[in-house]
Amino acid sequence: MDNLYKYENKLRKTGINYIGGVDEVGRGPLIGNVTAACVVLPKKFKLEGLTDSKKLSEKKRNEFYEVIMDKALAVGIGEVSAKKIDEVNIYEATKVAMKIAIDEVRKKINLEHVLIDAMPLDLDIPTTSIIKGDSKSISIAAASVIAKVTRDREMYELDKKYPMYDLKNNKGYGTKKHMEALEKYGITKYHRLSYAPVFKYKEKIVN
C-alpha cells in the first residue's frame, strides 16, 4: 500500500502539494462515452485496498467512490461521446476526455502536477506518464475508480432503454449477447460506428 504513495511523496518533497491523478475507462466498448477522471487527494489520504479499479469488485468500487468523492480536494470528470469518438478516433477522444477532467479540477484548485496512467498529454503544467499507473499511484488509482463507476452508471441507464444489449452486465463490451443483439436489432445512436463490429450494422438503427 505504501508503494502507492511513491510518486506523490517524491513530488511533495519538492514542495508540490496539488497533484492530480488521471485515468480513463471505456476505450474498448462498442457503445457509450469514453470517460476520464482527475482526482486530487489530501496529503494524508489513506484508503486500504485501493488499487486499479479493474481489480476491485463492483461493491468495493462503489464504496471507494463515495469515500474518494467525500475526501478528495477536487474531482473532475470528462466524458466524450461515441459521435466524437467516431470523428477523431478513440485515442484522441481519450486525450480530450482527460483534458476535460483536468480542466474541471483546475476550476476548483491550483493544480501543480498531473500523474497520468500511460497516456502522454500536452499540458501547460508538468505531467508524469506512468505505465500501469492505476496500480502504482494512489491518485491514479482513485481516478480509475471514479471514472469506472461513472461510466458503469451510464451503462446502467442505457440498459434501461436498450435491455436487449445486456449493457448492465457487459458494460458495452462486445460479448456474445451484445453481438447477437446487434445482429437482431441493429445499433443505437450511442454505438461507435468507427468500431468494426458496429459499422456493419450502420444502416440498421434502433429508435
Structure in a nutshell:
It contains 8 helices and 5 strands. By secondary structure, the protein is of the alpha/beta class. It has a 5-stranded mixed beta sheet.
Topology (SSEs and partners):
Layout: H1 6-12, E1 19-25, E2 34-40, H2 58-71, E3 74-80, H3 82-88, H4 90-106, E4 113-117, E5 127-130, H5 138-161, H6 167-170, H7 176-185, H8 196-199
Parallel strand pairs: 1-4, 4-5
Antiparallel strand pairs: 1-2, 2-3
Helix pairs in contact: 2-5, 3-4
Write structural notes for this entry.
The protein has 207 residues and is an alpha/beta fold. It has two domains: 2-159, Nucleotidyltransferase, domain 5 (2-Layer Sandwich), CATH 3.30.420.10; 161-199, no CATH class. Helix content is 42%, strand content 14%. It has helices at residues 6-12, 58-71, 82-88, 90-106, 138-161, 167-170, 176-185, 196-199; strands at 19-25, 34-40, 74-80, 113-117, 127-130. The protein has a five-stranded mixed beta sheet with strand order 3-2-1-4-5. The chain is elongated and about 60 Å long. The relative contact order is 0.20. The mean pLDDT is 96.
What structural keywords apply?
207 residues, alpha/beta, Nucleotidyltransferase, domain 5, elongated, 5-stranded mixed β-sheet, 8 helices
What class do helices, strands and sheet pairing give?
A: alpha/beta
Looking at CATH, which topology of the largest domain would you report?
Nucleotidyltransferase, domain 5
Overall tally of structural domains:
2
Which range does the strand content fall in? 5-15%
* Low-confidence spans: none
**What is the mean predicted local confidence, pLDDT?**
96
Give the terminus-to-terminus CA distance. 48 Å
Helix fraction by DSSP (H/I, runs of at least 4): 40-55%
For the largest sheet, list the strands in their spatial order: 3-2-1-4-5
Based on CA inertia axes, which overall geometry fits?
A: elongated
Tell me what the CATH architecture of the largest domain is.
2-Layer Sandwich
Helical segment tally?
8
Order of helices and strands: HEEHEHHEEHHHH
Number of separate strands: 5
Q: Biggest β-sheet, characterized?
A: 5 strands, mixed
Q: Which CATH C-level class of the largest domain is it?
A: Alpha Beta
As a whole number of angstroms, the C-alpha radius of gyration is: 18 Å
What is the CATH homologous superfamily assignment of the largest domain? Answer: Ribonuclease H-like superfamily/Ribonuclease H
